[in-house]
Amino acid sequence: MAIFQITRKIFFFLSFTYFWRGLVEAQILKQSCINEVCSAKRVTISNPPINLWDANVITAFNEFMVSLQDQNETKVVVFDSDNSDFWASSLDINLFTQRGIPGRNGTALIDTYFTNLDLLLSTPVIFIGEINGRAWGAGDEHLLRMDMRFAGPEAQFGAPEAAIGVIHVGGLQQLVKLIGSGRAAEYLLAAAQVSASEAARVGWVNSIHPTTNALRKHVNDIAARIALFPIETLRATKASIAEQAPPRAAFENDVARFNQLAALPQVAANVGTVLQVSKNESKAFEDNLNNNIVEKLYQVPN
Ligand SMILES: *[C@@H]1O[C@H](CO)[C@@H](O)[C@H](O)[C@H]1NC(C)=O
Ligand SMILES: *[C@@H]1O[C@H](CO)[C@@H](O)[C@H](O)[C@H]1NC(C)=O
Ligand SMILES: *[C@@H]1O[C@H](CO)[C@@H](O)[C@H](O)[C@H]1NC(C)=O
């Protein structure tokens, strides 16, 4: 009887832990179905106030990507945001400080971050980005590795990395393929902020839609239509397109370049200054992230 009660307590504890973890993840990545059989789903990023790509987002995103391996139910996933100002902001640069993220292993988190970027290309599911709001840094790196992107009028794109002293790993080479080397060089080297209409004009996104509702309808329609077709065909099409993607070695080279740059004293100093002047990644600073970094680090008026 006593053993039975202890076992019950352990089971209660375990199920409570799973319930709690599930709840935390459900809050960060909220899932819903687009079609009746749920072969097309929507995943809504929710990490207020700015959808900072922090340790919790990295972990939740990884668990979701892992859940898509070895399964035959999910054909299409749309990533959107419940924050009208941000699709997703940059990586939490506290990860690059001496202090790191209390209670978390920073090296392991960065490894997981890169694994997630890799999984977006290699997972046999069609990924669609639905963006209305800002997609800076980490947000844009994830978007650029999805199969397609659609924007609303408030979308903005930008890679702030050059201003800090690093590179837009995982997004850089994808952007070159999408918009050409000249334009990619311009936007990346200048850490530009790019509007939705300009992004649509150059091909950073597939198209721009005039309202949130029009964007949602377009994306739901295309996701549901793709999900009608045989899963083998979708996978073969994605695999064939991926053969034209930059090779995996190019991604690994960029990870090595990023790590070398991130180890430079100047980059560490820039990270410290940005954390200070941004008041630890405040919304007011991140709203205009690239321009604010340039203004504060280089004393150039914004
Ligand atoms: C998915 O389908 C493939 C082939 O159609 C099959 O070999 C595999 O076992 C299936 N996987 C699951 C998890 O059902
Ligand atoms: C942190 O993670 C790295 C990479 O996974 C691992 O090699 C290292 O041992 C971990 N450090 C601690 C303190 O757990
Ligand atoms: C900065 O904000 C993060 C949450 O985004 C928090 O975990 C961390 O403790 C803050 N750091 C400082 C120095 O206030």
From TrEMBL:
Which N-terminal residues, if any, form the signal peptide? 1-26
Protein source organism: Trichoderma lentiforme
Which protein is depicted?
Answer: Short-chain-enoyl-CoA hydratase
Quote the InterPro entries the UniProt record gives: ClpP/crotonase-like_dom_sf, Enoyl-CoA_hydra/iso
An example Gene Ontology biological process: fatty acid beta-oxidation
Xref: Pfam families: ECH_1
Which Gene3D superfamilies does the protein's record reference?
2-enoyl-CoA Hydratase, Chain A, domain 1
UniProt entry keywords in alphabetical sequence: Signal
Q: Does the keyword Signal apply?
A: yes
> Where are its TM segments located?
none
